[in-house]
């Protein structure tokens, strides 16, 4: 049974007297730090990345990673496959010199060269001394960073293929977490890969859940890699994170979340409907035409046809459509197969010109007798005759336009799928909780506290409310979501920004920021002073926030990443790193 969890707004976090944002002309101090030798590495969409999932994955990928334990330290990977640290000294109000903390070796990075289909690098800090790096290709890297507040070099602890013994390339790391399980260190990871399902004839997101476990064998510490579960969804993934102890994973998507095994079983169940398929056959003295009713979404590569002059074996995946000895011999090399929206057609040429009493020597009871005996020209004529024989659908009733429109009518009129946040528990292999978000996805995700799961923001009226998982160690099955904070009128602001690329807020919610693709950065401070005594008529004194607009020079290039810290915004562009003092 799936428990429905409601998002309960904490009224104490709301500000009913908030009256919007006022544009401020105060300058925002900005410090530019140009790249010395190598720019930030960014892979573009390849020509076979044409799905919506690919576009979202590459367009929204943040190439700048903030350290939750040291917010003013940020990291990116340059074109020389080096992890670069960018740090800001709060005491001196100046940026420190960029520092290379780790260099990917060719043996660490596969063949060391880009192949079409590779994704960008992604990393997650799991503790004060460990980091998980995904190379965007096939591998995870567990790195020991030491004290990142000091100038320490990183070292490689272990590496593993995301899917062992697989040639699949192109992964993005969604989340990683370090837990102590039975006195042993366990690092859990979940990575996403966009693949195309042949049975469904569409793209889907494949989520691979795995972990490293540290064990001591013969007085030596060894990290063992285990792939735990694979989940998949045909929709976009807006949020994907572990809960504490990593026994469950929280996924927000507009598609149904399934395990790989569940998807395989459903596909087989669908195919079982066609295990003894209905087929119609027709003939002339020279030709045999067989028409099959097959599942939608298949293509010719899913079929296996083996035939000779007197025998035929025709399969869809592992399901037999037609197999046996023909009533008489045919010209095997002249057999034609055609697949379209009306089904699958198989055409064979007889060796001897005469009418067959049946198709197979052991005739299938479900097969129908020939439809007609007149001469046929080709498959197209058969399809036209089949279409003409179908009954015309009854006309739809004329709607009464004078009736008032109800809310349910508006909901039915929208084609947008429902977005749900679900909790998948590993030991039960099932979804135990879900949160319905309607048709509006989470506005953004952010890290509010080091070591905690990321928070997500939803629109509540005109505000943007931030929510955080509430884990109950005493009762782990009681999963809830807590209202952590509120950004006043920020939901209304986001609705007006059509060119937004990155969205984030300060961990203490002192400001929120929107970065466009190239030039503009919008900063909103909801906790501003009162509006000089301004008040509504016959009402309480109102509060007005402050808005800053930062316009970047064209020579900075596109904005590739963004990170936030108290009083600091770090931007990664194509040509430089920018520090904005807020």
From TrEMBL:
Pfam families: CS. The gene is LOC108619001. This is NudC domain-containing protein 1. It is found in: Cytoplasm; Nucleus. Keywords: Cytoplasm, Nucleus. It comes from the Eukaryota. It comes from Drosophila arizonae. Residues 274-360 form the CS domain. The keyword Lipid metabolism does not apply. SUPFAM superfamilies: HSP20-like chaperones (SSF49764).
């Amino acid at each position: 049974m799936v428990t429905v969890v409601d998002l309960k707004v904490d009224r104490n976090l709301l500000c009913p007297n908030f009256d919007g944002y006022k544009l401020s002309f105060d300058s925002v101090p900005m410090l530019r730090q140009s790249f010395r030798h190598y720019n930030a590495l960014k892979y573009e969409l390849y020509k076979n990345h044409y799905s919506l999932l690919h576009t979202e994955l590459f367009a929204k990928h943040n190439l700048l990673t903030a350290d939750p334990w040291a917010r003013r330290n940020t990291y990116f990977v340059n074109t020389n496959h080096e992890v670069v640290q960018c740090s800001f000294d709060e005491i001196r109000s100046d940026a420190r010199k960029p520092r290379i903390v780790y260099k990917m070796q060719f043996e660490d990075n596969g063949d060391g060269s880009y192949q079409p289909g590779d994704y960008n690098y992604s990393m997650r800090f799991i503790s004060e001394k460990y980091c998980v790096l995904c190379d965007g290709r096939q591998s995870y890297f567990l790195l020991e960073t030491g004290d990142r507040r000091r100038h320490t070099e990183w070292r490689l602890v272990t590496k593993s293929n995301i899917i062992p013994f697989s040639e699949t390339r192109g992964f993005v790391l969604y989340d990683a977490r370090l837990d102590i399980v039975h006195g042993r260190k366990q690092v859990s990871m979940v990575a996403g890969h966009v693949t195309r399902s042949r049975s469904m004839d569409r793209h889907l997101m494949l989520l691979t859940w795995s972990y490293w476990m540290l064990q001591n064998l013969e007085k030596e510490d060894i990290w063992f890699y285990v792939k735990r579960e694979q989940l998949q969804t045909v929709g976009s993934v807006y949020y994907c994170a572990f809960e504490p102890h990593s026994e469950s994973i929280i996924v927000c998507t507009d598609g149904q979340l399934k395990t790989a095994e569940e998807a395989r079983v459903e596909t087989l169940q669908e195919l079982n409907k066609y295990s003894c398929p209905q087929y119609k056959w027709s003939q002339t003295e020279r030709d045999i035409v067989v028409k099959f009713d097959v599942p939608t979404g298949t293509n010719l590569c899913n079929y296996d046809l083996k035939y000779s002059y007197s025998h035929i074996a025709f399969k869809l995946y592992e399901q037999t459509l037609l197999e046996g000895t023909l009533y008489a011999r045919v010209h095997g090399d002249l057999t034609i197969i055609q697949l379209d929206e009306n089904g699958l057609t198989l055409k064979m040429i007889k060796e001897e010109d005469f009418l067959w009493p049946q198709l197979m020597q052991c005739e299938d009871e479900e097969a129908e007798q020939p439809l007609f005996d007149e001469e046929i020209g080709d498959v197209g004529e058969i399809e036209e005759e089949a279409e003409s024989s179908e009954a015309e659908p009854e006309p739809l009733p004329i709607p009464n336009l004078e009736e008032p429109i109800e809310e349910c009518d508006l909901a039915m009129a929208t084609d947008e799928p429902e977005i749900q946040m679900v909790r998948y528990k590993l030991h039960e292999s099932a979804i135990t909780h879900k949160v319905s978000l309607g048709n509006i996805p989470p506005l953004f995700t952010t890290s509010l506290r080091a070591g905690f799961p990321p928070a997500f923001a939803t629109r509540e009226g005109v505000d943007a409310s931030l929510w955080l998982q509430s884990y109950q160690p005493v009762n782990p099955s009681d999963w809830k979501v807590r209202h952590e904070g509120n950004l006043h009128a920020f939901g209304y602001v986001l609705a007006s920004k059509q060119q937004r690329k990155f969205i984030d807020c300060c961990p203490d919610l002192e400001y929120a920021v929107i970065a466009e693709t190239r030039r503009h950065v919008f900063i909103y401070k909801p906790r501003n002073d009162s509006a000089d005594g301004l008040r509504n008529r016959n009402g309480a004194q109102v509060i007005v926030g402050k808005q800053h607009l930062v316009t970047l020079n064209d020579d900075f290039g596109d904005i590739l990443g963004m990170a936030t810290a108290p009083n600091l915004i770090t931007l990664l562009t194509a040509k430089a790193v920018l520090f904005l003092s807020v």
